[in-house]
Amino acid sequence: MSALLSRLQSTGPKRILALDGGGIRGALTIGFLKRIETILRGRYDRPELVLADYFDLIGGTSTGAIIAAALAIGMSADEVRAIYLDFGGEVFNDRTDDLGIRRFGLLRGRYSAEPLRRKLGEYFEDKTLGDESVKTGLCIVTKRADTNSTWPFHNHPLGKYFAANQGLLLRRIVRASTAAPTYFDPEQIDIGEGLSGAFVDGGVSLHNNPSLLLFLVATLRGFPFQWPVGERNLLLVSVGTGFWDQAASFQDVMGAKLWNWASSVPAMLMDDANWLNQLMLQYLSNSPTRLPIDEEVGELETDFLGGAPLLTYLRYNIRLEAKALTELGLPAYAERAESLREMSRAENRSDLDTLGSVAALKMVKEEHFVDFFDPHRRVGA
């Protein structure tokens, strides 16, 4: 039995880390990961501990897939930070045709995928989904556009499709998960039996925030993990890439043209999907980080689907709004809140990294990582 299979099938509490998509805003995520890693290193007196040592399943969508794969092969939070500070400016370069005229994404993705492919090749080389260098459970969320189906590529050795998928290059699967329509062209992946699939960003599905999907992957009988549920059995840590209240004037909405709706509907659906994830996971748990869903249902602090918490759930995210940034002690960023929301502004990556680090110090508490999720503790201990 492989070390990974032994770990995934072992008894005792299990820990899941879920990472949102969000383009260059993934830099926000890293500050939270560094804070979690620092807490865990101190708790277990292991200065070299990395998040793959603690989390039994790490998954992500789009930019979260890059981070998830990097963590799963044993990179530290600082190493992932170096990736983000390195690659953003090169990846988000405007595509030009042979005459040097920008295509504006009308026929193809706005950005060439070649810099992204090159960088992913540097980070992941020829490592595969089933490679022994992947130290923990990994799930990369993609969308197969030619069949309109969500594909969570995971590395559990007993998975139904693991034999067919284990040889797929990590860099190809991650590239598929980051192929956001209008930003990058789709990624073609050989899916076996002489067939190919056209894959795009997993954020086009309901799972730009992949936390609920990872809970299902970890617990449904159709997947091979089949981990037991329960507040003391399952920890799910979810990290976002920034959010803000969506608002437009009544006059603007009523006067919107067809092309205005075409450009705004995808963001509306993605925002709804994110809040549905949040609602369901708060409904399933007694979360110390719960947020008000809306003015009617509130934070669901006394609502438990099934009558009892099915997991321990932690959600870390930051409001990219002027008031919230000022309250964080970062008034200099407040007037730039709208600019910081843009997914492809690579020049913001250092500022986003700073925001994530400051927010993490206030939001991520040592007491959130309760002792019954100690990796060496067994159920009932």
TrEMBL record:
Q: Where is this motif: GXSXG?
A: 60-64
List GO terms (cellular component aspect): membrane
Keyword Lipid metabolism assigned to the entry: answer is yes
PNPLA domain ranges (all copies): 17-215
Q: Which GO terms describe its molecular function?
A: phospholipase activity
Q: Is Hydrolase among this UniProt entry's keywords?
A: yes
- Report any one BP term from Gene Ontology: fatty acid metabolic process
Q: Where is this motif: DGA/G?
A: 201-203
Write out the residue ranges of the motif GXGXXG. 21-26
Query: Which controlled-vocabulary keywords does the entry list?
Result: Hydrolase, Lipid degradation, Lipid metabolism
Per its UniProt record, what InterPro entries does this chain match?
Acyl_Trfase/lysoPLipase (IPR016035), PNPLA_dom (IPR002641)
Active site residues per record: 62, 201
Q: What is this protein called?
A: Patatin
Q: What is the lineage of its organism?
A: Bacteria, Pseudomonadati, Pseudomonadota, Alphaproteobacteria, Hyphomicrobiales
